[in-house]
Write a structure and sequence with these properties.
722 residues, alpha/beta, 8-stranded parallel beta sheet, 6-stranded antiparallel beta sheet, 19 helices, 28 strands, 17% strand, disordered C terminus
Length: 722
């Protein structure tokens, strides 16, 4: 019997263009369930997200972590165990991971792996289409109506018999991400975690029970046992709501944050009726170390990411503690990812890579793990061979208690125990992979093959984090025989070189059709800003293809009989008392022999020292020489003047009624633009991009009206006096 709806539960509204078959997922009943989850659990989720910031501040103050004294009794109590694994999750010796697109759904279920991690998180970019289509694909697979033929290749895809299919374990988004297309009555977006969990559980829980399985989940980005407790409360409510037995849901928690590594017992205890196991990741775990200890000094600096293997002393402490903790509590210990993507052209590359994968899986099996991850079906037999050799006919090795393992608190953060240093090649690789992954993510792809490795969002997180850490820790690397400091300028130089290399590699047409410049800019923003962004995916979500702007769109045409008027100027013409802050991004290239820095006079035609606006020129820190520049200037819109071939173009997606403007100033090389900053001469073809946002009601000059002129937006300048 379903739990009664809360009288105050907010109805959920859909803020997205409808997709084919969307109504099958977003039924009234499913939306009501999401409304209940949001009403009951989002407030606590918000509190826990705020708590993360407080804990991070404490780590910044102390530069250390320890096991919690207040939960010592839980760790020291040897009597408790998690619930026994259901039959479908007893043998997990090989698990394959991947997004929930239609082709991957079939291939993963057919792969021969015991489990498929069906990913709505790091291997999936959360476009509305991916969110809805992923839910449809899972249900279609359970109903065996997912077979299809690829129109491009003519290849057919069909499911194997039911008894040969992997068991799906769904990974919803982390607590920090919202789903902006589904909103409560007050306009607040629903947490993506509750949307992904709620839709999958509501539509498939009973269906899965009928198949002899159940609603199983991987829980990502967990930072404390209190967050695990919240998930347990969600599970308990959800099972009661649809009327299935308590404990039907099972969850495996990814221990991919450094804080969670100190609370593994506690996390299992909070979820003990629903816990299935813990998983040991790598990239997100390293990303979490950088994020939490970013101001801890040189001893917390990580070397090149590829040099930090699971055999590093501090990583080995983490994995061995995970195995010991899981087996002591009767839970599965699942190992890390083999991300290699086999080459169809180079057998020698495959031979070397397969040997490395086998060594890695052999080590995990010997260490006591009950299973491990692979990213490609061709790796399933390799991992199976490693675990078959240790397990034989046994489904797992939870009987290996690993009581020989003893890990002290300091062992988990002994980063300086690793005998490796950052390198210039490591910096270049971080930039290369960061740009290439972000570009694909912005187009809606979450799992991306880069340099024969399957990368997901965790790769971009550790890449940008290492760039940030190396710059702020004053790391030096060897470059062409000389020792150089890793600086923002060096990172920009490498990023510019990589962008040029991608343009040459892809060709101009493909480059222009992609999101390469946007990816380059976003990587530099999150890598070079003083303020370290908690998650790359938060600012990236604002730019994700298929996701609506948080601000209402601008009508393309004014109402009949009206001209479009710039905000703040409802009675045109005439003066208004509105000033704005203008953010100008200038892309430029210093000519040979030019000044080393903008600000002086010389061949840099837009030398920033020559820009004279109506107000103070404010240089933003961290951005500067040799690459994109960002400046904040108080200006009056009356200073915008159309000159020569230059034109002022209105960008869509900004709300007139809110007083927001977005302008793009374009011009041919050599033209002059007067934009309130002085004359910009020799502007490169990329142009000068200006974004105007409200700056408050301060007295200022007249804002000229804006009218439509043959589809273009231009500025009507008032006649000069006299």
């Amino acid at each position: 019997m379903s739990a009664p709806a809360s009288p105050s539960a907010a109805p959920v509204t859909i803020d997205a263009e409808p997709l084919p078959r969307q109504e099958e997922v977003l039924t009234d009943e499913a939306l009501a369930f999401l409304g209940e989850l949001h009403h009951r659990f989002t407030p606590r989720r918000n509190e826990l997200l705020a708590r993360r910031a407080g804990r991070r501040a404490e780590i910044a103050r102390t530069s250390t972590l320890d096991f919690l004294s207040e939960t010592a009794a839980v760790r020291e109590d040897d009597s408790w165990r998690v619930a026994e694994a259901p039959p479908a999750l007893t043998d997990r010796r090989v698990e394959i991971t991947g997004p929930t697109d239609r082709k991957m759904t079939i291939n993963a279920l057919n792969s021969g792996a015991r489990v498929w991690l069906a990913d709505f998180e790091d291997a999936s970019a959360p476009t509305w289409e991916n969110v809805i289509q992923g839910q449809l694909n899972l249900t279609d697979a359970y109903e065996r109506r997912i077979d299809f033929t690829d129109e491009r290749t003519g290849k057919s895809y069909a499911l194997k018999p039911q008894e040969e299919l992997a068991t799906a374990v769904v990974r919803p988004r982390g607590w920090h991400l919202d789903e902006r297309h589904l909103r409560a009555a007050d306009g607040t977006p629903l947490p993506g975690a509750l949307v992904d969990f709620g839709l999958y559980f509501f539509h498939n829980a009973r269906r899965l029970i009928g198949l002899g399985k159940g609603p199983y989940f991987y829980l990502p980005k967990t930072e404390s046992h209190l967050e695990a407790r919240l998930w347990n409360e969600v599970f308990t409510f959800a099972q009661e709501y649809v009327g299935i037995p308590h404990g039907t849901i099972r969850a495996t928690v990814l221990i991919e944050t450094i804080t969670a590594a100190y609370e593994m017992d506690e996390i299992l205890y909070e979820l003990r009726d629903h816990a299935s196991g813990l998983n040991a990741g790598r990239w997100d775990y390293l990303f979490s170390i950088v994020k939490n200890f970013r101001d801890g000094g040189r001893k917390f600096v990580l070397p090149d990411r590829n040099a930090v293997t699971m055999t590093a002393p501090f990583m080995r402490a983490y994995t061995e503690l995970l195995v010991r903790t899981c087996h002591k509590r009767g839970a599965h210990a699942i190992g890390g990812m083999a991300a290699f993507i086999p080459s169809r052209r180079d057998a020698e590359v495959n031979k070397v890579a397969f040997a490395k994968v086998k060594d890695d899986k052999d080590r995990e099996a010997r260490d006591g793990f009950d299973g491990s991850w692979v990213a490609h079906p061709d790796l399933v037999p390799i991992a199976l061979e490693s675990f078959d050799a240790v397990l034989g006919e046994k489904p797992n090795q939870k009987d290996r208690l690993r009581e020989d393992v003893s890990v002290a608190a300091g062992d988990l953060i002994a980063i300086d125990s690793l005998d490796a240093e950052p390198t210039f090649d490591g910096l270049r690789n971080a930039v290369q992979v960061g740009i290439r992954y972000i570009e694909a993510w912005l187009r809606g792809l979450g799992a991306v093959a880069i340099f024969n490795l399957m990368e997901d969002a965790a790769t971009a997180e550790i890449s940008r984090s290492q760039i940030w850490q190396w710059i702020n820790a004053g790391v030096e690397v060897e470059r062409d025989g000389a020792t150089v400091l890793v600086t923002r300028e060096l990172a920009r130089e490498v990023a510019a070189e990589e962008l040029a290399a991608i343009r040459a590699e892809t060709g101009e047409e493909a480059f222009s059709a992609g999101r390469w410049q946007q990816a380059h800019d976003l990587l530099l923003t999150v890598s070079l800003d003083d303020d370290y962004a908690d998650f790359l995916t938060l600012p990236a979500y604002e730019q994700l293809v298929g996701c609506p702007s948080p601000r209402p769109p601008v009508p393309r045409h004014p109402p009949p009989g009206h001209s479009r008027v710039r905000p703040g100027s409802p009675q045109m013409p005439g003066p208004v008392g509105r000033r704005v802050r203008l953010a100008v991004q200038i892309r430029y290239v210093l000519e040979p022999g030019g000044p080393a820095r903008p600000g002086g006079r010389g061949p840099l035609g837009v030398g920033l020292g020559e820009l004279a606006g109506r107000g103070e020129l404010q240089r933003q820190p961290l951005l500067g020489d040799g690459g994109p520049l960002h400046e904040l200037v108080d200006v009056r819109l009356a200073q915008f003047v159309r000159r020569g071939e230059a034109r002022l173009v209105r960008q869509p997606g900004v709300g007139d009624e809110r007083g927001d403007l977005a302008e793009q100033v374009e011009g041919d090389p050599g033209c002059q633009l007067r934009v309130g900053l002085g004359d910009l001469r020799g502007v490169p073809a990329e142009g000068v991009v200006a974004e105007v946002v409200p700056f408050g009601d301060r007295s200022g000059g007249a804002v000229p009206p804006v009218v439509e002129d043959e589809g273009r937006t231009v500025v009507d300048q008032p006649e000069p006096p006299g």
